[in-house]
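Researcher: First entry.
Model:
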Amino acid sequence: MQMEARANILSTKRDKVLDMLKCVAMFMVISGHCFQHTGYGNSYLNIPIFRVITMIQMPLFMFISGYVAHKSLTSSSLLALAKRKYFGLLQPMMIFALVQFVINYIIFAEERISIGSIPHDVAVSIGYSYWFIWVLLYAIFFAWGVLRALGVSGLVGSIVVVMLLPRELPLPHLTSFQAMYPFFVGGALAYRYDLLKWLRKHSWGALAASIAILVACYMTYRGSHVFYFFKYMPARLYFTAYGHLLLGGFASVVAMYIVTWRLAERCEKWSSTRLMADIGKYTLGIYLLQGLFVEVAKRVDTTITCSAVQWLIAVGVFTICAAMVYGISRTKHLSKWLIGK
């Protein structure tokens, strides 16, 4: 009994490497938004460093989400799962989306707001402000249903089903869901079959292979083919871009995990390593807060031509958001309502 209890404690222990990866991925997201909204627009996708970052950030986030969600997918009832995700994801997102509504329709409104349009405008803000939250919720509940009905083999097959869904379906963020779902399933399967342990055992070979794939994907990368534009692509280009996304995304997950794992092993006592892991526990709150900075940046219409300044802004926004989330986490009620903890 004591050995079983110890095993259960160890199995529920947070993975420091995954938290560090979430910290890195969150900075990547913020840096991309800073470049996008300070002069580059969507052309930032073709900047050499962001050609790499774009292949990494969202697939990595979704893979980790699937990994940590596996236990809920296999052990929670639908009601329990819905309740947990409402308070942990949906409620905080709705609150920040309402703040975005205030920014868009009141503070920076170009014309006087119509009282009758408020319900519609609030719904639009909630439905479209934070696409990743909606995509994650789609993935969680779809995977839960598939696992219950068809098991693991069905979960693997569901990737093809999602990929082939008509992109014209009137479902918000459908193409983003199609793009990210394979990584969520990959994370869930990695947990189920302990694939990260296998990666650690074969780290050098896996790292070499993943880097080779990433280099090939980098050489064939096109900013106009990123999944943000899947909805507007003809079928042939869509499937080509999808294949590129899967290759680059999974290769980046492998490379990032191995590099970060080795860093954590060698620099375990470094304060910077511990700080990264601590920040990684609160990436939801950082993601929600940075969304407010993004909305203000869109309205201010700032143009900066110096990349060094843009990187400094990214560091500043990341630091401010992390500090604010830390402060929120120290207050019980704010933590519950704003970051779902």
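Researcher: Second entry.
Model:
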Amino acid sequence: MLKKWFKEYIEINKRDILLVVCLLMMGVIIGIGAYVFASAQVKDLAISSVREVFDISKTETYVSTNVILNGLKADVILIVVLAMLSVTLFGRWIIYLIMILKGAALSVYTILLFNIFGPLWGIVTFILLVLLVNILYIPALIYLTVSFLDVNFNIFKARFNNINLAGMYKVLFAIMLSFIVMFSSIIVEQIASSVTLSIYKKL
């Protein structure tokens, strides 16, 4: 049942899915380029900012709920922003920009982790804080983004008259499902952050 739904969903939305994936990958490339061509001062500032977060967590009492609460706030804000953009005329283009920025932030964050932890521990922290977390987060983000892009298309294109309760229920389902998966990624991030902090304390 789930497998059938998954195949049908990809078949129906393959163009939008591919577009969002390409935007994220474009962002990754832009992030790498921005870091490579950034001045030494900017690089040092970025590294020290991330290092400072680890230092604060190392010296003070580590509260795991902070990671969860901050993650929840960020996800709620993102969903609200995407929802608002989906009902605006030029919202689609801003959603595209957000996806590019998401990819750029991901690549820059990965580079900073390797700068702080070195090659060996950098791979470990990459797996913990980037790979494991985004295995859940990125598919949910793509699903959510495609849903809001569909809303935008229905409102401002030829299918305006096709908007009905079924379409609204579909969007609400996408929001709830995406939020649940994103919340799961936050839990994984909290666990990974605890492990990463233990590694950082040993450096």
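Model: Note on the second entry: The radius of gyration is 19 Å.
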